[in-house]
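Z., the sequence and structure:
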Amino acid sequence: MATANNHPLVSVVVLNWNRKKFVDPFMKTIMAQSYPKEKLEVLFTDNASSDGSVQYIKEKYGDLPYLKIVQNDKNYGYSKGNNLGIHRAKGDYVLVCNNDLQLEKNLIEDLVAVAKQKRAGATVPKLVYANKKGYLNNAGSRLEPTSDWPIYEDGKDEKDEGQYDKIREITAFCGACVLFSRQFLHKVGLFDPKFFMYFEDGDLSWRGQKAGFKFFYAPRAIAYHVHTGTTTEGSPIFNFFVGRNRILILTKNAEFKVIAKGWLKTWRDHLLLRLKRLFLAAVGRYPRRLALRELLASQRMIWGAIFMTPYALGKRFRIIKEDKL
């Protein structure tokens, strides 16, 4: 059993929105952590759930001395929702966790050990699919600043055969589970609230890289992830935020030729292709309702990106300041 000597205070920020079903699996793995409980605080941050999540965790876990409830007044999404929890954190390190995780008992211990050893701004665990046994979800991410799709996940959908079992430096992190140093959050800032969800971790990774911070992958720290436990890949809300925020992250951080490339592909995939399908629908070779629905969804995403461009440029040129701890 770990003792509190030489263990920094760790604040665990877990964001919830109408996912009461994840409370027990997550909290049980927090309670089983080898890290000294007197050096932990857990900030259960709720985005105005309507499913009784807050009342449930208060009734079942409210007597835990390290548990704190942060109740947001509305659904602020991943970015601002987490930021509101982080602002309440007192730890030397802040561990941001999705609510759909189950943590191995040594996860916090191993993340902190690597973070201290490497003086890391951010440290990530090995993410394994909870519902796809033996397959990796994320083993660190990569920033590709010259690509119009700038963030890639190492190990995604690969069978875990020990190929990612060494501590290594990475260039980006996945926001599903990431340990930040307080210095990183103070100097670089928090998640950009305008992203709402998706690509906000890539944006923060990019900003951290520019500020000179290093990120590391800690393979002995393992978390099991119910991937897209709150939203579903391919759903309208998923496609809107991924498409819009891809342009937003480029506008904030990339060279202008990369931004132009991103926009050209967006026009191709979300306007020209949609108009082609609308034409095919008119001659009976594509479902009419589907073609119209796809066109309207794409237009909403494109106009969303256009309206956000002045804001992204304001952040790029530091006219608008980033939220910081």
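Residues 288-316 form the longest helix (29 residues). The chain is about 40% helix and 20% strand.

Let me know what you think.
H.
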